[in-house]
Design a protein that fits this description.
The complex is a heterodimer of chains A (112) and B (112).
Chain A (H helix, E strand, L loop, with lengths): L3 E4 L2 E4 L5 E7 L5 E7 L6 E7 L2 E4 L7 E4 L5 E6 L8 E8 L6 E3 L3 E5 L1
Parallel strand pairs in A: 2-11
Antiparallel strand pairs in A: 1-3, 3-8, 4-5, 4-9, 5-6, 7-8, 9-10, 9-11
Chain B lengths: L3 E4 L2 E5 L4 E7 L4 E9 L5 E8 L4 E4 L2 E6 L4 E6 L8 E9 L5 E3 L3 E6 L1
Parallel strand pairs in B: 2-11
Antiparallel strand pairs in B: 1-3, 3-8, 4-5, 4-9, 6-7, 7-8, 9-10, 9-11
The chains are: A mainly beta (112), B mainly beta (112).
Chain lengths: 112, 112
């Protein structure tokens, strides 16, 4: 049974056209994370939520925003995608101490 | 600032070989260390998690060790199979936060 679900799996957008990626979880975990992973690179943390508390990484561009309307869902909004934003976007969840992070299958974003 | 390094970046071995993947970290104040597997274009699958108080963990043909004092972890794969071909990532969970710091991975190819 899928525990962390990401939709869509593949997203194609045009340069500058806003896009929203979705993540949902059935684990009831407090913490949700968004990572960006470019080809052959390590996943890079963009931000995370502990419950409704939002924590932005210092080097995350302003172009990236996130919303967490409830425990189960978290969204990544890219306001004006550039060619450099093409990547795999990974969502993950963690319990109160985030001992283990559970990753979704990722959304592959292509920017034309 | 924690840095996680994985050597080698790529490895090709014939089927049946035992192999070791290396991971090093600069800050020993870690809560745990996790090894993940990533297949091309897919998300991350957790393989083994070692708490900071532990020395090793085993799952099937996989054995991971942790030496905090030297800042090293190794992933040992016994009797490698073509199905083991993937990228293997290690990640350190910092003691002071909920953040995973990833290495850039070792790309493993097991040749039949």
């Amino acid at each position: 049974d899928a525990m962390v679900i990401q939709n869509p799996r593949y997203q194609v957008t045009q340069f500058g056209k806003p896009v929203t990626l979705s993540c949902s979880q059935t684990l009831n975990h407090n913490v949700m994370y968004w990572y960006q992973q470019k080809s052959s690179q390590a996943p890079k943390l963009l931000f995370h939520y502990y419950d409704k508390d939002f924590n932005n990484e210092a080097d995350t561009p302003d172009n990236f925003q996130s919303r967490r309307p409830n425990t189960s869902f978290c969204f990544l909004d890219i306001r004006s995608p550039g060619l450099g934003d093409a990547a795999m976007y990974l969502c993950a969840t963690g319990g109160p101490r985030a001992d283990t992070q559970y990753f979704g299958p990722g959304t592959r974003l292509t920017v034309l | 600032k924690q840095e996680v390094t994985q050597i080698p970046a790529a490895l090709s071995v014939p089927e049946g070989e035992n192999l070791v993947l290396n991971c090093s970290f600069t800050d020993s104040a870690i809560y745990n260390l996790q090894w993940f597997r990533q297949d091309p274009g897919k998300g991350l699958t957790s393989l083994l998690l070692i708490q900071s108080s532990q020395r090793e963990q085993t799952s099937g043909r996989l054995n991971a060790s942790l030496d905090k004092s030297s800042g090293r972890s190794t992933l040992y794969i016994a009797a490698s199979q073509p199905g083991d071909s993937a990228t293997y990532l290690c990640a350190a969970l910092m003691d002071s936060s909920y953040k995973l710091i990833f290495g850039s991975g070792t790309r493993l190819l097991v040749r039949p």
